[in-house]
Design goal:
heterotrimer, A alpha+beta, B mainly alpha, C mainly alpha, A: alpha+beta, Cytochrome Bc1 Complex, Chain D, domain 2, 2 domains, five-stranded antiparallel β-sheet, 13 helices, 13% strand, globular, B: mainly alpha, Cytochrome C Oxidase, Chain A
Amino acid sequence: MGFREYRIGSIMFGVALATSMVVTVYMPGLDISNTTATATALEKQLTYGKVAGFDYGDPFLHGDDKPIKVILKKDPKTGAAIDETVAYVFKPGTSLPSGLVHDHINGAAIQALSVSLGKTDQVSVEAGGVYLVVKSVKNGVETPYIELASATRGWTIDATLKAADQEILAGAGKVMFIREGCWWCHTLLPEQTHDWQSFGRPPMLGDFNGESPTTFGSDRKAPDLLHVGSRNSSKEWMMMHFFNPRLVQPHSIMPRYDYLWGGVDKKGNNIDLAKWDEEFDAYREGSRVYPPEVPEYADNSEIRYLIDYVLDLK
Amino acid sequence: MIKYMFSKEEDIPGGTASIFFGFSCLMWFIVGTGIGSFNAAKLAFPDFFTHYYALQFGHMRQVHVHTVIFGWIVGAFAASALYIVPALGNTKLWSEKLGVWNCMAWNVGLMLALSTLWFGMTSGREYSDFMWPIDLYIAFCMVTPLFINIFMSILNRRTQGIYTTNWFFAGSFFMLIIVFLVGNAPEFFHLTGLNEAYMTWWFAHNVLGLLITPVAAAITYYIIPKVTGNPLYSHRVGHLHFWSIVVFYSTPAAHHLMSSPLPEWLKSFASVEGVLILVPAVAYVCNILLTMQGRWSMFVENIEIKYTITGVLLAIPLNMQGGFQQTRAINWYVHGTGWIVAHAHLALLGFSTFAEAAAVYYGMQTMLRRKLYSLSLANFHFWMLLIGFSLYWVSMTIAGLIQGAGKIYEVPYLDIVIAEHPYMIVRWLGGTMVFLGNIVWLYNMYMTVKKGEKLEHGVLPHEVAYVR
Amino acid sequence: MSKFLPLLDGLKLSHPLKTMSDDRKVQEAQYIWEHESLGGIAENNNPLPRPVVGLLILTFITAIAWTFPLFGQRPNAAIYADYITLMHSAPVQQVMNDKTLTTSARDEKAMKMIVGALADSDSPYEFQRIQHPISMNDLRIMEPGIIELQNQHADLREYSIIGNDVALANFEGNWKTDANGNFLKGPDGKKVRERLQPWWDKGYMTSVYYFFGFCFLVIITVKRLPPITWKPDHSIAH
């Protein structure tokens, strides 16, 4: 390449950029795509559904088009008592996570078991279904796989929802987590090297297969939340903290999420925010002994989704 | 503007597109820094403007980031490129009309993009927060026309050579299109898991590394020789800079995820390449500062040189931080803290904003053929920007070191929040100074259009504007 | 191939560090350099100052030295194996069963004894132990995992301590060999890798190759220009 020889320069530019992309996109892509999913990854896929960000199914990020996680203590079909089981209910039309749509997401062994034992070749968006994460033990090696309980155990969607002890709307909650920008301050990534002592186990290589988006977060202005549900499982505390963080943590800089109540409490009464603030100010100034009561949220309110999600981060 | 959108190409005066872009980027800069100052106030005083869905920090933060990146920084790049590229080729812009349409598409698109983002329609991926239809719009309706205009102007040049600045303009906007399309692939094709996480940071890294840093540098490659009258110190060092940007800046994306479970080899590779970003940085800073030989008095006397050289000097700590903070040893301490926030502002508000401000000051005067309305106001703006930025940078760096110490020694998180509080207030003060300075700038520019002294033909603005 | 011919056009390799272009090519370049006006801007033909070249070499050495795969990794199980042995030793057990102290005081004292006992030992893990200090409770949690691995005669260095788990590490190292240097085969008949970071980390070597490729091409690009002794006359074009 001599002086002002742009044709060669352009070719070299192309070669340099292509080499760089091979090393930084293609090679890592191959490596990462070959990882085998862990049970955590399968559970996350079934909890969060297809995409927690913008998607056709939920363009305004209201938490639509998401599965329901339920906890069962009796068999939905027979009614017999069973060990506490987590099932994931996809109502008809709910989009499926990529691990159920594509064959290569979860790794060959898991895919083979899911198809042969779990009947996941019968999944369908139109019909919906009830899913489980099950472990198969062979030669002392545990392999998790997905089971379509509607096909293997005859659990229908209605029966499962009816038999459910508890419904956890963590899939819709993750949408709230993203839309409300929680991840601008709270990371979901305890760092590998040091802070697992306070924030818990850092994630493993296969913990993310099929999750979208991963929202690690990059700027930690607040505690890491990956295992927050294990540290603090109180729904009441979460409710107070979301309504006004200063209620439970006087020095917190977290924004108030009172608007996620949707203006009404559990009984459908309107929430008088101005009055609440007045009473809270009185409490802060010491002229009131107890802080005002935080209104309980409605079952279909956005704050319910968010609290379900946060408490589900185990 | 509407008038020129439907005029014939030959009826549009040269520089129109550049002037439109110049003023729109100025507006966006004020909006962006205003939101930034508002956000900082929320971090310092969390009960400030509470209860409102749209004014909540989590909705505003990304709007601030994208307003300054796409509205101000890339907008200012467009304004500068549309006058620098033709000037360096002794030719006219390939199509002023395309440029005017481009500016319209830019502002409309940005308004659409930012309002959807504001109301929560996000992909949930940092720096590629826009939902994918908007990403496609940005790639094809905002960046591609700009690239075509720049590229065709370079092809139609009337010099044999292409000057260093134009290598960067052509290369960077081309790479921006590629980076946009590849980096948003997880949204287009629904890629999931660690691939998605990695591609998010691949995009974020390369949007900075292959667009903002090199184009800001390209602008200084123009302003310094043009205004001082010195020839560029070295053509061959320019080669070293250009090629090492393409080769080294495009590779270390994984260093943003050093503590995630990505393959270890990828992290090692990214970390070495990350330090090697110092190669283009050293080459570039030397080339510019050595070009200043014999004209250092202009650093004090001339407003454009003052801005540009301040930017170049800020590039030194920027690259020193950037090269080393991503190594495992230091990343361990500073990852996820305010240190990184300070570093990001050093890159965007320090280095590149100062370079672009110079280009906008210079370009607007040249294109309008008018002398700047008030040099004192320009100096006032400079000091507001510099002091405001310094307050921000120093306070956030300290806050980051406190957070880092708290992280390593496992201090309860709330104690860190309490310790950081004074620095959050200083951060807000700094950000507000930048915002107020920009309002003064807009006024100064507006008055330049209205009342600025006309420049005679064949006279460059800096030759008359700043004679004391 | 013809597209690449200009790359070889006028190539001269007799003085590769001075110039790689022949005289005709150099003259052409000099003519263009002096006769064009790039919008009123000109370029000089200076080399990088010597100290800056030194700085760049230093940068490369620093990049290699500072990023050597040493810092900031997860602790591996091997560094705590001695802790567990010591935990079961008589003096430490005596402290841990000392009812006169509170539980936390007991734990602290016992851990201090363990760390103190290991401080003088000439262990390859000394650095990592300082980097990853633990409490007695952490040690209790990881104890069963490590003991189980020891019973299986696993190489503890291949296991990371991740939260409460002792898990196989995320590295791709050298192929495993037996004492005679033959490759070990896994159950599927394929060669098995050590889960240790080798001194030649894959990403690390990729970086080295990448860097030398870059140097090679930049040297060619720059040395095809007229020699640095020549100074262009910028008065011609203006």
